[in-house]
Design brief:
The chain is mostly beta strands. InterPro entries: Pro_4_hyd_alph_FE2OG_OXY.
Amino acid sequence: MSEKVKNRVLFQSRRLSVYLVRYSAGHAIVPHVDMVAEGRLYKLNCILVKPRAGGEFHCEKTIFNLFGRLVLFRPDLYQHQVSQIERGNRWLLSFALNRP
């Protein structure tokens, strides 16, 4: 499935990473929790383009979710996933902040 994902690192430091990601039709993200060596991980995902069908984000608990377009959550604490993209692409701008 790696050919179905294109991930571009826009910025990366010890505490903050910014990614632009394109997920193509056929891709899905299985339920998982992100592992961190130390600290607390926060992710702010901005869904720039939703696929025409599928590709829905699900998380056990979010800090906030604005119309399914702007989602802040703790990926190190709560299981999250994306359903299979049936048609179209999903474009995501993702900010990951690791706090000590």
